[in-house]
Amino acid sequence: MKNARPRGRPLSFNRDIALQKAAERFWSHGYEGTSITDLTSAMGITPQSLYTAFRSKAGLYQEALDWYADTFGNTGLEALEGPGAVKTLSAWLLSQARAFASSSYPKGCMISVAALGCATENSTVARMASQKREATIALLQRRLTRAISEGELDKSADPDALARFIGAILQGMTVQARDGASEAQLVAIAKLATDSLHQALRA
After folding, report:
1. From 55, 87, 146, 200, which residue has the greatest number of CB atoms within 10 Å?
2. DSSP state of 107
3. CA distance 199 to 178
4. Which residues contact 36 (CB under 8 A, 6 or more apart)?
């Protein structure tokens, strides 16, 4: 659940815009690579205002992850409930590849690499991100299990392994995007993953 803002005097800034700026900063530099000074500079607010609105850096990060999931991470996932699991999964992977290479925002997927390798004291923050990654894996598992029950995928197909394979592709494309891979190169990766899904379909 998203954190509610504490009661008190009305904020003197647009909270939604400030949250987006913070999310983009975290997206670019990670949790530990982003300081309170970095955040307040990007958000155009004071440290006191940050703590009043979001309680803590960790609280702000959790809301930033929610903002990313709502704005980008869930894009196209609702289409997976439609007919043709392989077709919809393939289209989703291709859309993610194109999004990861976009110049409009930081490269890659914020959640795919969020809070990896955090210090022990930031383990709670790392769990926030891993829970979102696992939620996506669980959604993919359910859809693939349904595809097996409907006869679209062979009964020998492993929905858990396929779901985690797709998750690994997303994380790998994020790293490639941050290393400078072009949209065409990321799309090629997504298409190779799509070929694997079609092989499962034909099994």
Report:
1. 200
2. S
3. 29
4. 47, 50, 57
Which architecture characterizes domain 74-202 according to CATH?
Orthogonal Bundle (1.10)
Per-residue pLDDT of the chain (203 residues; tens, 9 = 90+): 455 544 555 567 899 999 999 999 999 999 999 999 999 999 999 999 999 999 999 999 999 999 998 888 766 677 777 788 888 888 889 999 999 999 999 999 999 887 877 788 889 998 999 999 999 999 999 999 998 998 888 888 899 999 999 999 999 999 999 999 999 999 999 999 988 887 766 55
- 162: CB partners within 8 A, 6+ apart: 140, 144, 197, 200
- Going by C-alpha positions, the residue among 130, 141, 195, 191 that lies closest to residue 163 is 141
CATH class of 15-67: mainly alpha
Helical H segments across 55-122, by residue range: 57-68, 85-100
Domain boundaries, the chain: 15-67, 74-202
pTM for this structure? Answer: 0.84
- Can you tell me which residue has the tokens 């009305």? 10
* CA distances for 148 relative to 191, 192, 198, angstroms: 22, 22, 13
